[in-house]
């Protein structure tokens, strides 16, 4: 049976992608960070067992820390074996603070969680994939990685970095049978979007050519496509309603 690991998988886009991975027949290792998310992860794992007959494993870890990322990968290999077929780097945070008020600690944290964690997880999982000569990595970027967004300079930098990481690794590992792609979601209804200024969200909605906010399923569908798209690597797919046309 195939194995997938997803970071920050308990809720939002992560939850949608866990359900899609289960539907695709993967056993899923669901990383979560807070106690609050433990209950969500446990419920999700119960659900994928009942609905799709696959197994899950919840692993608590702050993915900004390399040793905690190693714990996720070690536990995945212990439970499901040495073959890790899919890695989805999804954990992310945002500050929404002016660069005049943000502190170095706050913007450093965004880079650690949104970019360095992706590097840590790729660094730990790629040896397994290289050994198996196959694998697919999906890095969740953002339209913020493709365009400028006010009061999100740190977030935009982290998400543009994810696209650079994706391209570099795709070139290095293309001949090893490993494909690395990114998804740059536009505005999607999750807690992250509910947490930002709703007047700004409404304003932005008007500027989306399709005139609507996306759903979690739009991103889960893009992930499923990229996992199966055997001639796609180093690409950034952006389900965004037309707000950016890179
Ligand atoms: P969310 O806040 O619901 O989910 C983020 C997840 O990351 C949560 O489960 C959270 O616990 C986890 N996380 C945060 N810090 C972590 C850490 N240190 N270690 C482990 N897990 C951690 O938001 P979401 O919208 O589901 O976001 C998922 C991803 O999609 C993020 O990378 C986000 O930047 C990206 N994204 C979201 C949107 C959107 O409109 N919702 C748009 C573009 C990109």
Give a verbal description of the structure.
The protein has 246 residues and is of the alpha/beta class. The protein has 8 helices and 7 strands, in the order βαβαβαβαβαβαααβ. The chain has helices at 12-23, 35-52, 66-80, 104-132, 153-173, 191-194, 198-206, 216-228, and strands at 2-6, 26-32, 56-60, 86-89, 135-140, 178-183, 236-237. Strands 3-2-1-4-5-6-7 form a 7-stranded parallel sheet, sandwiched between helices. Bound molecules: nicotinamide-adenine-dinucleotide. The site of nicotinamide-adenine-dinucleotide (NAD) has 28 residues, from α1 and α6.
Concise summary:
This protein has 246 residues and is of the alpha/beta class.
Question: What descriptive keywords fit this protein?
Answer:
alpha/beta, binds nicotinamide-adenine-dinucleotide, globular, 49% helix, 7 strands, 246 residues, Rossmann fold
In terms of DSSP E residues, the strand content is 5-15%
Helix content: 40-55%
Morphology: globular
CATH H-level name... which superfamily?
NAD(P)-binding Rossmann-like Domain
Radius of gyration: 17 Å
Mean pLDDT: 96
Give the SSE order as H and E letters. Answer: EHEHEHEHEHEHHHE
How many alpha or pi helices? 8
Helices and strands in order, then pairings?
Layout: E1 2-6, H1 12-23, E2 26-32, H2 35-52, E3 56-60, H3 66-80, E4 86-89, H4 104-132, E5 135-140, H5 153-173, E6 178-183, H6 191-194, H7 198-206, H8 216-228, E7 236-237
Parallel strand pairs: 1-2, 1-4, 2-3, 4-5, 5-6, 6-7
Helix pairs in contact: 1-2, 1-8, 3-4, 4-5
Residues 7-8, 10-14, 31, 33-34, 37, 62-64, 90-93, 113, 140, 142, 185, 187-188, 190-193 line the site of nicotinamide-adenine-dinucleotide.
């Amino acid at each position: 049976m195939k194995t997938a690991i997803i970071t920050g998988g308990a809720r939002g886009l992560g939850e949608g992608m866990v359900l899609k991975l289960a539907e695709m027949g993967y056993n899923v290792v669901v990383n979560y960070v807070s106690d609050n998310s433990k209950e969500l992860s446990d419920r999700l794992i119960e659900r994928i067992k009942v609905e799709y007959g696959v197994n899950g494993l919840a692993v608590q870890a702050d993915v900004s820390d390399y040793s905690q990322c190693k714990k996720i990968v070690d536990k995945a290999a212990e439970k499901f074996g040495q073959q890790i077929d899919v890695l989805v780097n999804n954990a992310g945070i945002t500050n929404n603070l002016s660069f005049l008020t943000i502190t170095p600690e706050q913007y450093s944290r965004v880079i650690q969680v949104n970019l360095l964690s992706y590097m840590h997880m790729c660094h730990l999982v790629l040896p397994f994939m290289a050994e198996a000569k196959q694998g697919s990595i999906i890095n969740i970027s953002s339209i913020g990685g493709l365009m400028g967004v006010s009061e999100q300079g740190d977030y935009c930098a982290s998400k543009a970095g994810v696209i650079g990481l994706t391209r570099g690794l795709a070139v290095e590992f293309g001949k090893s049978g490993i494909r690395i792609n990114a998804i740059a979601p536009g505005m999607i209804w999750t807690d992250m979007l509910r947490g930002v200024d709703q007047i700004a969200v409404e304003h932005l909605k008007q500027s989306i050519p399709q005139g609507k906010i996306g759903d979690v399923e739009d991103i889960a569908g893009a992930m499923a496509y990229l996992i199966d798209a055997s001639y796609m690597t180093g690409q950034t797919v952006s389900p965004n309603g037309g707000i950016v046309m890179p």
